[in-house]
Write a structure and sequence with these properties.
The structure holds 2 protein chains of 2 kinds.
Chain A (H helix, E strand, L loop, with lengths): L5 E6 L2 E6 L6 E11 L4 H13 L7 H10 L4 E9 L2 E11 L10 H14 L3 E2 L2 E2 L1 H17 L4 H13 L9 H9 L3 H14 L1 E7 L4 H11 L23 E6 L5 E8 L9 H12 L5 H9 L6 E6 L4 E8 L4 H16 L5 H16 L5 H9 L9 H9 L3 H9 L2 E9 L2 H8 L1
Parallel strand pairs in A: 2-8, 9-13
Antiparallel strand pairs in A: 1-2, 3-5, 3-8, 4-5, 6-7, 10-12, 10-13, 11-12
Chain B lengths: L1 E5 L4 E7 L5 E6 L6 E7 L7 E3 L7 E2 L4 H9 L7 H8 L2 E6 L4 E7 L3 H13 L5 H19 L2 H13 L13 H4 L4 H11 L5 E7 L3 H11 L9 E2 L12 E6 L5 E7 L9 H15 L4 H8 L8 E7 L2 E9 L3 H18 L3 H17 L4 H13 L6 H8 L2 H11 L5 E8 L8
Parallel strand pairs in B: 3-9, 11-15
Antiparallel strand pairs in B: 1-2, 2-3, 4-8, 4-9, 5-6, 5-10, 7-8, 12-14, 12-15, 13-14
Helix pairs in contact in B: 2-3, 3-8, 9-15, 12-14
Chain lengths: 430, 429
C-alpha cells in the first residue's frame, strides 16, 4: 500500500519529500530547484549540465563516472525543464536499493552525498567556474538545443509555443536561449550558481526503502546551513482566452507536415477546475477511444497520430498531428468539428467512462516503483502535492456537465504548420 | 508449472507449458497494483520468406507486412480491440521489431477481463479489402514520420550499408510502395503461419498470480497443432555492402551511425556472447574511459553518443551512434582504439568495475514490470531464462572478454552512415 508522502522542512523553502514503495530494487533521489524563468535562463540551462558532469572531488567526467560505477552503476542525470514559468533544475540519481548491495553498504547515503557535492561544491575557484570544462558544457548545451530541430514533432511544438506565448516568459525563444548559452562566462556562471542556491525553491525527493535518518541529517547539515537564503516568488502568466487566431506556416524540406493548434483553456492557475480539464483533454485527444484518434486517424485515415494534451502549469491545451500538407484544411476542420462535438456534449457516456477509467487506471499504478513516484511528485515541486490516489479520485468524480463546461472555455489562439514538400508534389501529380 | 528462482535477487517466476501449446511465463510482484501482459509471436520484419511443411516453394511477402498485420489485428467484425479495452481501462499497445511482434496492455484493475480481450483479438483475425486500404493511409504517414527522424534513418542507412542480402536491411514498416501490395489474403497467410501458439509466448508481470492467468488462458486458448516454420536462410557475405553512405535531411547537425559487421557461423548469439560484447563496448568507450573523455572534450561527440551490441537471427554487429561534425574522424579514432585494445587487452580493474556496473543495472531493472515482461519474451525466444543474465554476469572471466573483443570486432568490416544537414557541402572522403 502506498503511504502519504512525508514532508519535512529542512530550511526556508527547502523541503524533503519521502515516499515508500513495495520491495523496490532501486532508490531514487532527486534535488529539484525552481527559479523564475527570467532569472539567468542561459546560465541555469548550462548549470544543469555542468553540475551533473563534475565537482571539486570528481573533477573529470571519467572520475565522476568511475564513482558512479562503484555505486553499482548508479544513473546520474542533470536536466532542465519548465514548470509553468519556472525553470526546474533537477539533479537526480537512481541507484541500487541498499538491501541489495553486495555487502549491504548504504548506497543511498553515498548517492545523496554525491548529489550534494555536485550541487554545492562545483569545479570553481575565485568566483569563476572552471573555464575549460565550461567550454565543453557550452558546446554540449548548444548542440543539445540545436538538435531539438531534428525532432520535427517536438520542434513544431516549440515553434507553436514560441508564437503563442511570444509576450509571456513561457515563449522565450530558443534562438535567444541559444545565443545566451554561447555567451555565458565563468564569472556569470558562478554568480548564477550563487543566485540559484539563494533564491531557488528546493525539494529533495527520496523514494524507495531506505533508512532516512542519516539522509535527513546530511541534508540538514548541507542544505540547512545555506546562508542568506531569499527564495524568489514564482508566478506564471495565465492568459484565460484569446480573441483572434494567429496563423503561422513555416516551410521545411521534410517528408511529413506537422499541424499544431494552441488553445487557451480559461484556467487562472494550475488547480483551476483541473480534474474536469484533464478528463476533457483526454476525451478529446488522449487514448484510442478519444474523439481525435477515432475520427482524424481511424475514420478519415489522415494521420498516424493526432493528440490533445493539457499543459496544466500554463493553462494551455495543445493539439498535435502529423499529416500530408494537402490535407491541412481537412484535418484542421475535423479537429475543430470534434471540439464542437465536445462543447455540444455530443459524446457518449461510454467515451466519458472509458476516459476516466483509463486515467484512473494509469494513476493507480504510479506507486509501484520509486521511478514512477519520483516522476509523479516532481510535477508538484512548485507547491502543494496531491497523492496519485487523491488525483484519481478527483478524476473519477468528473461529470459530463463538467466536461462540457470546460470544453466551452477553450479558445483557439494559434495554428502552426511546419509545412513539408509532400503535398506540393502530390497536388502536382493529381 | 515450474517455479524459476533467483537466490541472488530473492525473486521468482512461473513457467507453464499450457495444453494449448503456448508457453506462459508469469512473474508475480506482490504489493504491486499494476500488471503488464505481453502476447508475442516470433515474427518480425526480417521474416519475408518462409515455408510450411505442406508448401512446395517459399512464400515471399511484401516488406513491412508483419508491422501491417500488427495494426490490422486490432480490428474485428464487431468492436475493435481498443473499443473493448476502453471498457476495462487498460492501456493497450503493440510493437513490431526485426524479429518479433508483441501485443501488450498494462492495467491496475480488471486484469482478467483485459487479458481475455488480449487473447481473444490476437487469436481472431479479421481482414477485408476495405480495412486493408484504410490502414495504408495511416501507415503511410507513420513511414513518412520515421523518414524525418534522423536517428532512425541513420540506423537503416547503416544496415543497408552493412548487409547485402539479409532482410534486416529493410525498414520495419516497409515503404509506401511495398505496403501497397498487401492484401487480405497475404495477411491471412502470414497470420496462419506465424500466429500459431507454438511460435508464441504469453508473459505477465505484476500484482497477479499464475492462477489468474491460467484461469483466462484455459478458457480462451484451444489446443493447436504446432507448426514447423522454415525461415529462409540469407547467405550474407563477410564484407560490408558499402563502407560509407550519406544522405541529407533537414537536420541542424550531422548524425552518424558506425557499425562493425561481425562474421558469424551460427545464426544466433548466446547470452554469454551478448553480455561479453556489452562489457567489450564499455571497455572501448564507456563513459569512464579516457578515450570517451577525449572524444567529448575534443568536440568530436556529444552526450547523444551511444553504443549497442545489435544482433538477431542471422545478423550481429557492434554499433556506435551520435552527432559529430566529423564522423570520419570518429571512425578513425574508434578503429585505432579497438585495434590498440585488441592488442593490450582489457585491464583487470576495468573489467571488474564494468561487471559491477552491469550487475547493478541488471538488478535495478527488476523494479519495472514492463521491462520484466518484455525481457521474458526476448529471453524465451532466445531459449534463455530471465535470471540467466544476473547469474552469467557473475561467472564471466576477463579472458573470455578479451577473446570476445578480438573475435567479434573486425575493424576491416566497418560501415559508416552519415546524415548531413541539407545545404551543407558533401565532406571529402
Amino acid at each position: 500500500m502506498q503511504a502519504q508522502p512525508k514532508i519535512t522542512q529542512i530550511g526556508e523553502k527547502i523541503r524533503l519529500l519521502q515516499v515508500g514503495a513495495a520491495r523496490p530494487k532501486t532508490t531514487c533521489i532527486s534535488i529539484l530547484l525552481l527559479t523564475p524563468m527570467r532569472q539567468n535562463p542561459a546560465e541555469t540551462t548550462v548549470l544543469a549540465s555542468f553540475l551533473a558532469h563534475s565537482c571539486a572531488r570528481y573533477p573529470t567526467l571519467s572520475a565522476l563516472n568511475a564513482r558512479l560505477e562503484e555505486l553499482y552503476g548508479a544513473l546520474l542525470s542533470g536536466e532542465i525543464s519548465r514548470l509553468g514559468e519556472a525553470y526546474c533544475l533537477r539533479l537526480s540519481v537512481d541507484c541500487l536499493a541498499d538491501a541489495l548491495a553486495l555487502d549491504k553498504e548504504a548506497v543511498s547515503r553515498a548517492a545523496l552525498e554525491l548529489l550534494l557535492e555536485l550541487l554545492l561544491e562545483p569545479k570553481a575557484s575565485d568566483g569563476k567556474f572552471d573555464e575549460a570544462q565550461l567550454r565543453t558544457e557550452v558546446r554540449l548545451c548548444a548542440e543539445d538545443l540545436e538538435s531539438e530541430q531534428n525532432d520535427k514533432r517536438a520542434w513544431a511544438l516549440v515553434r507553436m509555443l514560441e508564437t503563442m506565448c511570444a509576450d509571456e516568459p513561457y515563449g522565450y525563444p530558443r534562438a535567444a536561449l541559444l545565443a545566451g548559452v554561447r555567451a555565458v562566462t565563468p564569472e556569470s556562471m558562478y554568480r548564477a550558481w550563487r543566485e540559484l542556491l539563494k533564491t531557488a525553491q528546493i525539494t529533495v525527493q527520496v523514494t524507495g526503502d531506505v533508512d532516512m535518518a542519516p539522509l535527513e541529517a546530511l541534508l540538514r547539515e548541507k542544505l540547512g546551513g545555506l546562508s542568506d537564503r531569499a527564495p524568489a516568488e514564482l508566478s506564471t502568466v495565465f492568459v484565460e482566452s484569446c480573441d483572434d487566431v494567429t496563423e503561422v506556416t513555416e516551410e521545411q524540406d521534410v517528408n511529413q507536415s506537422k499541424l499544431v493548434l494552441g488553445f487557451r483553456t480559461g484556467m487562472c492557475d494550475r488547480d483551476d477546475d483541473f480534474y474536469a480539464r484533464r478528463v476533457m483533454a483526454d476525451l478529446f485527444g488522449g487514448g484510442p477511444y478519444s474523439r481525435l484518434f477515432t475520427n482524424v486517424r481511424e475514420r478519415l485515415s489522415l494521420c498516424y497520430y493526432c493528440s490533445a494534451r493539457l499543459q496544466r502549469q500554463k493553462g494551455l491545451l495543445v493539439v498535435q498531428s502529423g499529416i500530408e500538407r494537402k490535407n491541412r484544411d481537412v484535418a484542421f476542420q475535423e479537429i475543430m468539428r470534434q471540439l464542437h462535438v465536445m462543447q455540444a456534449g455530443e459524446f457518449t457516456d461510454e467515451e466519458l467512462t472509458a476516459s476516466k477509467k483509463a486515467l484512473c487506471d494509469a494513476f493507480a499504478g504510479v506507486g509501484d516503483t520509486p521511478e514512477g513516484l519520483d516522476a509523479y511528485y516532481a510535477q508538484f515541486a512548485d507547491g502543494e502535492v496531491t497523492t496519485p490516489e487523491a488525483l484519481a479520485a478527483g478524476l473519477a468524480a468528473v461529470t459530463r456537465e463538467d466536461v462540457v463546461r470546460v470544453s466551452k472555455a477553450l479558445t483557439l489562439d494559434t495554428v502552426y504548420l511546419l509545412a513539408g514538400q509532400d503535398g506540393e508534389e502530390a497536388a502536382a501529380n493529381a | 508449472m515450474r517455479e524459476v528462482k533467483s537466490a541472488k535477487l530473492s525473486e521468482s517466476y512461473f513457467e507453464i507449458d499450457h495444453p494449448s501449446g503456448l508457453k506462459i511465463l508469469v512473474y508475480p510482484k506482490p504489493g504491486y497494483k499494476s500488471a503488464y501482459a505481453v502476447f508475442g509471436t516470433r515474427y518480425g520484419s526480417i521474416d519475408t520468406q518462409f515455408r510450411l511443411p505442406e508448401d512446395k516453394d517459399f512464400t515471399t511477402v511484401p516488406e513491412g507486412i508483419a508491422h501491417f498485420l500488427e495494426h490490422k489485428l486490432f480490428e474485428s467484425e464487431e468492436l475493435d480491440a481498443f473499443q473493448r479495452y476502453a471498457e476495462t481501462g487498460a492501456n493497450a499497445n503493440a510493437y513490431t521489431s526485426f524479429d518479433k511482434t508483441c501485443y501488450l496492455f498494462s492495467c491496475t484493475g480488471n486484469f482478467k477481463a483485459s487479458l481475455e480481450i488480449l487473447l481473444d483479438f490476437v487469436m481472431h483475425p479479421y481482414f477485408t479489402a476495405a480495412t486493408v486500404q484504410k490502414e495504408q493511409g495511416i501507415i503511410g504517414q507513420e513511414i513518412r514520420m520515421c523518414r524525418d527522424e534522423p536517428g532512425w534513418e541513420a540506423l537503416f542507412q547503416l544496415l543497408r550499408a552493412m548487409y547485402k542480402t539479409h532482410p534486416v536491411r529493410i525498414d520495419i514498416a516497409g515503404t509506401e510502395e511495398s505496403i501497397s501490395h498487401i492484401t487480405a489474403d497475404l495477411l491471412y497467410k502470414c497470420y496462419h503461419t506465424f500466429y500459431n501458439l507454438s511460435n508464441m509466448v504469453l508473459c505477465v508481470a505484476g500484482g497477479v498470480t499464475a492462477e489468474d492467468v491460467l484461469e483466462v488462458a484455459d478458457r480462451m486458448l484451444p489446443k493447436q497443432q504446432p507448426v514447423t516454420i522454415e525461415r529462409k536462410f540469407h547467405e550474407e557475405p563477410r564484407e560490408v555492402n558499402a563502407p560509407y553512405v550519406e544522405e541529407t535531411l533537414a537536420v541542424a547537425s550531422p548524425i552518424f551511425s558506425l557499425g562493425f559487421k561481425e562474421a558469424i557461423t551460427t545464426p544466433e548469439r548466446s547470452l554469454r556472447e551478448i553480455l561479453l560484447s556489452q562489457i567489450v563496448l564499455e571497455a572501448i568507450c564507456g563513459k569512464t574511459t579516457p578515450f570517451y573523455a577525449e572524444l567529448l572534450t575534443g568536440g568530436l561527440i556529444n552526450t547523444s553518443f551511444e553504443t549497442e551490441y545489435f544482433c538477431g537471427y542471422g545478423y550481429a554487429a557492434t554499433i556506435f551512434t551520435g552527432e559529430s561534425p566529423d564522423a570520419k574522424e570518429v571512425r578513425r579514432r574508434l578503429i585505432e582504439r579497438v585495434r590498440s585494445l585488441q592488442e593490450t587487452g582489457i585491464a583487470k580493474d576495468d573489467f571488474e568495475r564494468i561487471r559491477k556496473k552491469l550487475y547493478g543495472r541488471a538488478v535495478m531493472s527488476f523494479n519495472d514490470i514492463d521491462g520484466i515482461a518484455n525481457a521474458m519474451v526476448s529471453a524465451h525466444f532466445c531459449g534463455e531464462g530471465l535470471f540467466d543474465e544476473v547469474e552469467t554476469l557473475g561467472v564471466l572471466t576477463l579472458d573470455e572478454a578479451n577473446a570476445r573483443l578480438r573475435e567479434s570486432i573486425d575493424t576491416d568490416c566497418a560501415a559508416l552512415a552519415v546524415i548531413l544537414p541539407k545545404g551543407d557541402d558533401v565532406c571529402n572522403s
